[in-house]
Known about the structure:
Oligomer: single chain
CATH architecture of the largest domain: 3-Layer(aba) Sandwich
Radius of gyration: 39 Å
Helix content: 40-55%
CATH class of the largest domain: Alpha Beta
Number of helices: 11
Structural class: alpha/beta
Shape: rod-shaped
Number of strands: 12
CATH superfamily of the largest domain: Toll/interleukin-1 receptor homology (TIR) domain
Strand order of the largest sheet: 8-7-9-10-11
Amino acid sequence: MRRNRIYGWDRDVFSHVTSLQFLDLRQNLIKIVNESSFPSALLANLKKIDLATNQFACTCEQIWFSSWLRQTHITLLEYPKRYYCTTPDNFNGILLKDYKPSVYSCNPIFFIVISISALVCLLILTMIIFLKCNTNVKNFVYLLKVKQFRRQGYLPILNSDDYEYYAFVVYCDENRIWVHDVFVKKLENEEGLKFCIYHRDFDVGESISGNVDKYLKRSWKIIVIISNAFAKSEWCQWEVDIIQERRRRQGRDVLLLVMLENITSKNMTSPLRTLLDSTPHLRYTKGIGENLFWTAVIEDLRKAVGQPPISEL
């Protein structure tokens, strides 16, 4: 049957041919060979087959034939060198043995399902990361804003040398251990910043309000450590009122707000809400993202206050 310009045949042509041992279809115009082309009864007794030099198409319709060529025990005359693709153009000349389409790649529905599943998994993973690292994300965004300000070509005016203390730290007694042993200790020892904390620096015998007023004037910036205990403290709320006055005079960059935890609605006061709404704040989290928090704290503390920036010449 060679050289007869055969390009296909009805599925019943070989249905009753059960004793054929050699089938020669060489040099025809066959493009696609599928499972219905050769009935199992024919293949059961076939010893040799010659399909060389046909015009095979390397498309997904050829997936059965491509797989069958690699698995069959029937002798394939001149295979693999005479079994090559002629269409489409990007596969022209490629040997059929090198064309290995998969069920998955040839099934668009499967591809769509896989793509949608991957997208859903990505969204779920993104939500989990955001919920777990919400604090770190906020701190990272805060830090980006600081760096963007510096890249705009401004030279900040640093005037901390005019003050005895780099910053006055406002906190409640319940957070004293963290403030002293973690926050102040790290920044003073590693960054060389000098803070004013009332347990260490206030004058003995003088009223607390007098000490607060005196040492606020000696401090370049104010750091506020906010927690639920802070929100419940009447004394801390009084300090918030004083802080707001300093903020009105010198701008929000004079303040660094550090949130140790989310403030519950029952503890949220109007002055504290106003402070949080009007001033960006950082959130402390231990573990992953902690280094990002400290970097943002240092960047914020070194920003200029009290005067507008001037452009660098």
